[in-house]
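User: I'm curious whether this sequence folds into something compact or stays loose and floppy. Could you predict its structure so I can see for myself?
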Amino acid sequence: MSNIVPLISSGTAGPLGVLHLPRLWLKASLGAAGKLHSDYPAIGAGYDQMVLDGLGIDKGAFESFINSAKPSYIELENWILEQKGGSLDQDAVDKLNAAIKGYIHADGTRAEILASAGRDDDGTIKDAVNLNNLDDWAIFHAAELK
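Assistant: Here's the prediction. I'll summarize afterward.
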């Protein structure tokens, strides 16, 4: 298994209630182990950076922790709490989660994802979380099941 597609949705939250954080942990962990599918960045500029910025976590410190500690998900959440003095600002988490849920891909990106997934672009799927899910599933199917 050296080509793993990260199938945790950006719409998933762990016990801290932060959307996308479980996916970021998975991608960064797979990247650190050299097992992440080549279509994915270990820590990208989109939702990944949104989460780090929303939590006030430095990307370099996050990456260093993932690479050196190889934490479980709960260990990552505990580390984040340590960085934030024991608790998160719930208003900041709510704002971050709303930004993740509300992000809309550009029309061209939407059309490309839907075409790759084999679904007509009838205008009913616009949010990035669901489009990214479809993209992940299509990439997984092409890479692992064919």
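Summary: Residues 128-144 form the longest helix (17 residues). Helices lie at 21-32, 47-55, 59-69, 73-83, 90-102, 107-117, 128-144.
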